[in-house]
Amino acid sequence: MHDALIEARDLGRSYHNGREQISVLRGLSLELRRGEAVAVIGPSGSGKSTLLNLLNGLLAPDAGLLRVFGRAHSELDDNAWAELRRTRIATLFQDGNLIPTLTVTRNIAFRAGLAGLQRHDGEALLERLGIADTAQRYPDQLSGGQRQRAALACAFVMQPQLMLADEPTGSLDYATAQRVAPLFFEAIRERGLGALIVTHNPELAQRCDRILELREGALHPWDSAASS
């Protein structure tokens, strides 16, 4: 069985600012396989968020080939992408993206329900992430770090095959990040999913199987010697 979750070849994406066309991604290629965690690093404005939104179907490429779960982007309409985001692709945003009118427990149950799961391990996930005591709180009653961990629980509870994460430990203090990061990767390994992780945190990046640097619109193997 072909185990590539993402195959991208020569992807391009531009924006228009008035009459000016701004090229963000050009000639970008990527392959991500099941059970693999890949970190993407790069300066702010280099196109990392644009890349994530191409891979979860919120944006369409202007050029190149993109396959997700073996299906070409051109074969997937809005409904097909929405179904993938409900059931197979989990995207972790920096702001947590929790529903403000639901408690943490109900956010988790809602996310599991969207994925078609009647039973879930949300309670155990909260326990492992160290926020079991927040289960009946609302998002505005949580700290930034608690919201991010609750979002992690929502992402894993849907049992995705592909995780797209934008700074998954960015809102955590150093001690909490050191405790949560191993749990994050442990869950990835246990569940055999593929993960693409955008981060500025070198320690988090080095836990991944590969580190790629996004520069001049394309991905390149990270040269640790050049950056030190």
Number of DSSP strand runs:
10
Strand order of the largest sheet: 6-7-8-3-9-10
Q: Helix and strand succession?
A: EEEHEEHEHHHEHEHEEH
Q: What is the rounded distance between the termini?
A: 40 Å
Average of the residue pLDDT scores = 92
How many domain units? 1
**What's the multimeric state?**
single chain
Low-confidence segments, given as residue ranges, are: none
CATH topology: Rossmann fold
Summarize this structure briefly.
The protein has eight helices and ten strands. With 228 residues, it is an alpha/beta fold.
Folded structure, characterized:
With 228 residues, this protein is of the alpha/beta class. It has a single domain, classed as Rossmann fold (3-Layer(aba) Sandwich), CATH 3.40.50.300. It is 34% helix and 29% strand. It is built from eight helices and ten strands. The chain has helices at residues 48-55, 78-87, 104-114, 122-128, 144-157, 174-191, 202-206, 224-227, and strands at residues 4-17, 20-33, 37-41, 63-68, 71-72, 89-92, 162-166, 194-198, 210-215, 218-221. The strands form two sheets. A six-stranded mixed beta sheet has the order 6-7-8-3-9-10, with helices on both faces. Helix 3 (104-114) runs parallel beside helix 5 (144-157) and helix 5 (144-157) runs parallel beside helix 6 (174-191). The longest helix has 18 residues, at 174-191. It is globular and about 50 Å long. The mean pLDDT is 92.
